[in-house]
Amino acid sequence: MFDIDTSKPVLVTGATGFVAGWVVKGLLEAGCTVHAAVRDPSKAEKIKHLDEIAANSTGEIKYFAADLLNDGSYDEAIAGCGVVFHTASPFTVDVKDPQKELVDPAVNGTINVLHAANKTDSVERVVLTSSCAAIYGDNADVAKAPNGRLDESVWNTSSNLSHNAYSFSKTEAEKAAWEIAKSQDRWKLVVVNPSLVAGPALQDRPTSESFSIVKQMGDGTMRMGAPRWAFGVIDVRDLATAHIAAGFHPDANGRNIISAHETDVYAMSQELKQKYAKYPLPRGAVPKWMAWLMAPMLGGGMTRALVARNFNIPWRADNTKAKRELGLSYRPLRTTMEDMFEQMLDAGMLERKL
Predict the structure, then answer these.
(1) Which keywords describe this protein according to UniProt (predicted)?
(2) Residue 22 near residue 238, CB atoms below 8 Å
(3) How far is the C-alpha of 262 from the C-alpha of 281, rounded, in Å?
């Protein structure tokens, strides 16, 4: 166990995001004053769910307008804060200009937030939401990791602007963060490296990429088959707990792989069969050769190189550091998938079958 210091406000960037929302919820319920940095605080619909949480918590929320690409944009929001949770970063795979849409916001946003931390004497710790994508690019990379299992010592060296651009953006952003952190000795940087984030959102209509994947499982898009594209999965609620531990646990340090389950798209879909058998869930796994042939027609950034380096190749990662040092425990994958699917039905993202 660890104590959460509520004597100073805490900053959460991208506070309306999928992960950030649960982090804000945990902090408010612990009694913290949360400085929520968002693009436009005047958009009431965007922050309504956070206001409702704050109204039923012992903590307090204050909103600040901030833009990832504007240096100095976070100066007002960070004033007086003891811990900074930098969660804001674009997460999409289908982009036209990877440099402009992914790399620049991720890298420059991180630099701008950490420059603000450097100017703010009250800041003692910064928690950066990075990703396992900064550790590996393709599943084929896993075989080169120590004992064939990813750990915090490994860095993604296979991604670039034309191949796995999102992973490249996360890698470059985390590298920039460590460079700034090592240039000073007042605040500590703790990095959270989650695998694919799943589970229910606090917003009524979530837009995370993981919801797009699960929607295709339930609406019939993947009826004839789902890929054996392996990855780790973490429940968003457990990830929020990991963030708060990274912010306040005295033993928190360095990089931390936050991943509960080693699975794949097809296996994830099968977690829904028991409760949602009426839905057109995938009947089987897509053969790799078929996915390779169809890749150029699939859209969403899919390429034959991605199929070749990821399909039917296991994903393995050592999650023991974070579990041991941050005191984490994780929900079953079925719970995560069922809670997520149920929310999508409630939100009308999928048609409910009676």
Answers:
(1) Oxidoreductase
(2) no
(3) 20
Alpha-carbon distance of 309 to 229, in angstroms, equals: 10
C-alpha distances out from residue 41 to 38, 47, 105, 272, Å: 6, 7, 20, 37
Distances (CA, A) of 111 to 108, 137, 228, 242, 319: 5, 23, 36, 23, 28
Q: 155: Cβ–Cβ under 8 A, 6 or more apart, which residues?
A: 134, 135, 171
Other C-beta atoms closer than 10 Å to the C-beta of 144 total 12
The β-bridge partners of 194 are: 258
- What Rg value do the Cα atoms of the chain yield, rounded? 20
Domains annotated for the chain, with CATH where assigned, are 10-200+231-262+315-331 (3.40.50.720)
Residues 247-260 pLDDT 10s: 999 999 999 999 99
Residues 6+ apart with CB under 8 A from 28: 34, 53, 54, 57, 58, 59, 60, 61
**What confidence tens digit (pLDDT) does each residue in 154-195 have?**
999 999 999 999 999 999 999 999 999 999 999 999 999 999
